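Model the whole thing, not chain by chain.
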Amino acid sequence: MSSTMLSRRAFLGSAAATGAFVLGTRLVPVSVFSQDALAQGPWEPGVYLAILPDGLVRIIAHRSEMGTGIRTSLPLVVADELDADWARVTLVQALGDKKYGSQNTDGSCSIRDFYEPMRVAGATARTMLEQAAAKTWNVPVAEVAARNHAVVHGASGRSLGFGDLVATARTLPVPAAASLQFKKAEAYRYVGTPMPSVDLEAIVKGQAVYGADVERPGMLLASIVRPPVLGSTLTSLDDGAARKVAGVTDVVKLAEATAPFGFKPLGGVAVLGTSTWATLQGRKALNAQWSASPNASFDSATFRKTLVDVVHTPGRVVRTQGNVDATIGVGPTHEATYYTPMLAHAPMEPPMAVAEVTGGKAEIWTCTQNPQAVQDTVAQALGITPEDVTCHVTLLGGGFGRKSKPDYAAEAALLARQVGKPVKVVWTREDDLQFDFFHAPSAQYLKAAIGPDGLPTAWLQRTAFPPIGSTFDEKEQYGGGQVNMGFTDLPYPIANLRVENNPAPAHVRIGWLRSVAHIHHAFAVQSFTDELAALAKADRVEYLLRIIGQPRVIDLAAEGAKGVRANPQHPFDTARLRRVIELVAEKSDWAKKPAAPGRALGIAAHYSFFSYIAAVVEVEVNARGQVKIPRVDVAVDAGTIVSPDRVASQFEGAAVFGTSIALLSEITAREGRIDQTNFANYILARQDNAPKETHVHVVKSTAPPAGVGEPGVPVIMPAIANAIFAATGKRLRDLPMRKVPMNG
Amino acid sequence: MSQTSSATTSTIALVVNGEARTFEGDPQTPLLWVLRDTLKLTGTKYSCGIGLCGACTVHMDGRPIRSCATAVSLVAGKKITTIEGLAPAGAEHPLQTAWKAHQVPQCGYCQSGQIMQAAALLATRPNATEAQIESYMDGILCRCGTYQRIRAAIKDAQAAGRQG
């Protein structure tokens, strides 16, 4: 197996030269190609797959690789259906191009949305190769079968390699997808096995190419001072000292963006030079002054109070059934308020982009989760069409949602056009933390009436957070679809239930971060559930199973939810939620590890991105109040699994990511400026405070594939909070928990 | 126009991955940017720029240093080893073997630094305990959360070293 990140020109050039058979699932009529007079010319009825006459199979990786292994996993599905020998497969990273369908590698949907298209691509090619062999041998197609990069005729023992069949296969009509026969699950040899990432070798040798590593001839480096408060503008600039720095070539003003900010570059002052160090030194020497902005009133500590206050008032009802008001005052009640702060994505590789702009066309090389958005954003910035923007996708040094927002690519394009040379925009860590599209701060208020059996008879919950929508319409204060992420879809059958969303304005760019609103909603709901279990003096696992109730498929519309559309492929089946709870309890030895002072287990379960996840976290809290996490068990039902080892690694990583959120990380602001500058004050889990062992237990399933990259995060924060409560008696309702002394 | 001021320019000789190299420029330039911008050794990564995350870790005379916070003037005459030179061409370091066996990397961006830090540990304390490994590796941040596989791979490489 080899992989390359060829340019489109190089790919098509070599494919043309070698007479490739290119096939995909978005098929264009064969007639277009039947006019191809050159017998050795490429036959390209589709987009994801090519077979060369020498037998090499070339598969397009159209999604972005940021550590999930997707650049390997989806091509493996094609290769498996094709019955290709992985050693004779080469990968080509796709350019941004709508012909591939969505390339927005976000929302845990790559396998979910493209498992079937990849099977179709592989099965189509295999079927045509089999037909070509049958035609060559003049035997019924039923007598031949693809076997490891060849088609064989069992009765006669004849065999022809894929390459030998290309010339005939490309004369055949493309079969309809509905007519295709797919492999049986037990016949897969790659899907479901722990295949290594195609990038593994390059990574451990230091040869992998990220956005930061791209270099173009004559390229300048650029570093940008951006408006420190969202909406402020440059009032004066002294760049005399900056221009005197050796290696600095240019200082360029970029127009400040105005609301709605969207993915627009923020503007500011760029210092360009012949080395990264020169641009950074030049930038330090700038003296820039900025105007006031309405967002300068933003103080995150004050805003925390605003959020907490608003969820204690009635909000917009997004789900209601029964009569909460008539029932919630009857008998004992319990209420609690939760707060989660702003968070930054902080991928290890900050945003980076290289641009060349010539003759009204732009070429971009960047670490992006969404190359088509790069095309659109750069086109808008330059006043050209998206088709005039070529976007090469490098590896991503982490993404977590930050790199689906391509403001940095537009910065590079604007600067490249201005100076007439290729430009690489280098975001420093400080830039990354201060000019992120932040995960929203949020508050939740929950109140329940408790019946004699300890279960809730009425339940009210409210949530408030500046919504992602505010980045695209600054007036938007309601969460929309983000409220449905683990909040509207509360899976408990409670007769009297109301879910509300309260408004919250944004003062910074708000964006989606790995698992999005599930972060705060799972924390609140699963903490509150644990609080009710504690009041009932119940075993937490038993209580969780009881509150979820008898297995059922939830019809949210029938249960009073507004504007929630069910996905017929992915019904919300609480039997599967119960199953992962039972599994994680068993695997973590829950029953044998009762809580002791300073050491306890905590459990949480959450449904997100159509996956069912339960986690048990073991915590130790020492006399000094330090928290250690010796062990995490995670049970996962994500439907069909393509790459089990990469799935395990995603959940191992999510446990660390969730630990950072639970215990350590927080973005704050004063006078509209972000306080955090680097890893000294934006704190992330390291070897010392990350979970020591995370054990991932995957439920075998043939259900349609569901999300994997994100669903491991939401359970971690409440499971940690619940474990700390069990170990110390302290109920921590504010994140990050390090701010509260646990031994006090 | 690019300006050159002789007052801030020095010529510095160093040995990188066994090859004699010279750098002409600001002696305060961090080694990281000399490696990446001048010598085109991009396996060493930028992430924090102030020695907090370890993505830029290389060896100076066998010791791990944060190249982003080490001025090139401080490594004059020193032997620098980067991820590209950790193993002889065509070979691989036992840690690279172990890293692949455990499929340690996710995004991979921090892994050069992780491997270089681990290589220094393996060379100086081949029998480091789990706690010592954890403490030694604590300075190298991984946002993807590959920590447990990093420790497992180091332990494998320790075992391989003991076998010979």
